[in-house]
Amino acid sequence: DLLTGWCLFGLALLAILIFSWVYVRKYQSRRESEVISTITAIFALAVALITSALLPVDIFLVSYMKNPNGTFKVWADANVSRQIEDTVLYGYYSLYSIILFCVFLWIPFVYFYYEEKEEDDGNTCSQVKTALKYTLGFITVCAVLLLIGAFVPLDIPNKKNSTEWEKVKLLFEEFGSSHGLTALSFSISSLTVIGMLAAITYTAYGMSALPLNLIKGTTSASYERLENTEDIEEVEQHLLRIKSKCRDGRPLSSRDRRTLQQLEERLRTLRRRERHLESIEKSWWTKACEAIRPLKIVWGVFFIIVALLFTVSLFLSNLDKALHSAGFDSGFIILGTNLTNPLNMLLPVLQRVFPLDYILITTIVMYFIFTSMAGIRNMGIWFFWTRLYKIRRGKTRPQALLFLCMILLLIVLHTSYMIYSLAPQYVMYGSQKYLVQLGNIFRSLLYVSILFPFNLDQCIVTRTYLFLHKFWFFSAAYYFGNWAFIAVFLIGLIVSCCKGKKSVIEGEVDDDDSDMSDDELSVYYH
C-alpha cells in the first residue's frame, strides 16, 4: 500500500547514503583527502541518486490513486489527489533547488577553496575570500538564468499545423504558471541541457564500455607480470649500453642524456607496475574475481541487452516524433505513440504483476546512473580536448571527485527526459486505466493515451512530464540530443568491440605517480 511504498522509499534513501559514502571512500586519495571535500562529494552524489529515485515514486503515486478497472479509489478525491501531486511537485522543486545550490555555490566554493589551500597553506580567511571571489561568477550565472526564466515567454507563435500543440497547452495550463517556479524551471532546464551534453559524452560511452569490459574481462596478472619483467630487463640493458659510453670519461651527448632520463623514468614506472602486479597476483580479491568470472559474463550479456533495448526504444521514439509531432515550434512533443517500441510494449505486460513494472523502470534509471559513472571512470574528466583529472581507485584527487559529482548531478537532471523518451506513455500516466463509454457500456482501457482526446478529469499526469515540457525550446534541444546520444553509443560500441582486454591494473600506474601512491592502492589488495 501507500505506507509500504513510503517505507521502501525511506530504505532506499538509507541505501543511497551508504552507497555514496562507500563509493567516495573507495576512489578518493588517502594522501589528499579532506573532510570538507569528502562530505561535499558524498552529499552531492546522494542528492543525485535521490533525485533519480523520485521518478519511479512519481509514477507509482499517480498509478496508485486508481483501481484496475479505471475508477478512482474511494480516498482519492480531488483534494487528496491534488495534495499528493503537490507533495511530489514540491519534492522535485526542493531537490532541484538543492542541485542549483550545489552546482552554482557549494561545489565551486569547495573546489576553489581546496585549490587555494594547495597553493597557500597560510591564512584561512584569505583562502575563503579567494574561493568566494571565484564562486561569485557561478552565482552571477545562476542569477541571470533565474531572471531570464522569470520573464521568458512560454507561448509560441500560432501556426496552421498546431493541433498537437493545442493539446499540450492544456497540460501547461493545468500545471499553473508562477514566475518564481518558472524561473527555477528555466534554470534547471538550462542545466539539463548541459547534463544532456554530459550524457552524450559519458553515459553513451559507458553503456557500451561497461558490458563489453565485463564480458571480455582483464588480462591475467601473472601474464602481465611476465611481460613486465621482460620489459624491465630490456630497459636495464638499454641503460647499460648508454652508460657504457661514458666509462672512459667522455661526456654523453644531449640526445643520450635525454634518452637516459626517459629510460630511467620508464624503469621507475615498470618497477611500480611490478609491485602492483605482485600485490594483485597474491590478493584474495583477485582469486574471488576469477571465481565469479562466469557471473561477470552473464551480467555483461544482460547489460548489453539492456543497452540495445534502450537504444532501439530511443530510436523508435525519436523517429515517431520526427514523423508525427507538430515540429520544432512545439518541441517535437506528441501526446500518443504511433510507433511503439519494445519498452512501451513490455511495461504494460509487466503491469499485470505488481510491482514488476516499477522494478523495471527503477532498474533502467539506476542503469543509466551507473553507466554514467562507468563512462566518467573510464574516460576521466575532460575539458574539450584536455584531460583535467583521472578517476582512479584509491588515488582520485578531491577536485576530481567534486567534478564527478557535479557531472552526475547534471546527468541526473537529463535522466527523466531520457526515460520519458523511452516510454512516453508510461512516464505520463504510469499504469492508470480510464473508462470510455461505448453506447450504454463503459469499457476500461489499459492505456490512457490510446485514444484522443484524453480526459484530464479521469487521468492524472505525472509531475515529471509537466516539468519536462514547460519550455518547448528545451524539448527541441533534447530531441536533437537523443539523436546525438544514439550516434555516440554506436561509435562507442564499435570502439569497445575493437579494443582488446584491459590491463588488470588499467589506469592505476602512471608515469607521473609518486612511489608513495603505491601504498594507497595496496589497501585494496590485502
UniProtKB/TrEMBL annotation:
Subcellular location: Lysosome membrane
Membrane topology: Multi-pass membrane protein
Keyword Transmembrane helix carried by entry: yes
TM regions (residue ranges): 6-24, 36-57, 93-114, 134-154, 181-205, 297-316, 358-379, 400-422, 476-495
Record-linked InterPro entries: LMBD1_LysCbl_Transport, LMBR1-like_membr_prot
Positions in coiled-coil regions: 253-280
Gene Ontology cellular component annotations, sorted alphabetically: lysosomal membrane
Principal subcellular localisation of the protein: membrane
Keywords: Cobalamin, Cobalt, Coiled coil, Lysosome, Membrane, Transmembrane, Transmembrane helix, Transport
Gene Ontology molecular function: any one: cobalamin binding
Cited Pfam families: LMBR1 (PF04791)
GO biological process, one term: protein localization to lysosome
PANTHER family with a match to the protein in the record: LYSOSOMAL COBALAMIN TRANSPORT ESCORT PROTEIN LMBD1, LYSOSOMAL COBALAMIN TRANSPORTER-RELATED
Family per record: Belongs to the LIMR family. LMBRD1 subfamily.
Protein name, as recorded: Lysosomal cobalamin transport escort protein LMBD1
Upper classification of the organism: Eukaryota, Metazoa, Chordata, Craniata, Vertebrata
Gene transcribed to yield this protein: Lmbrd1
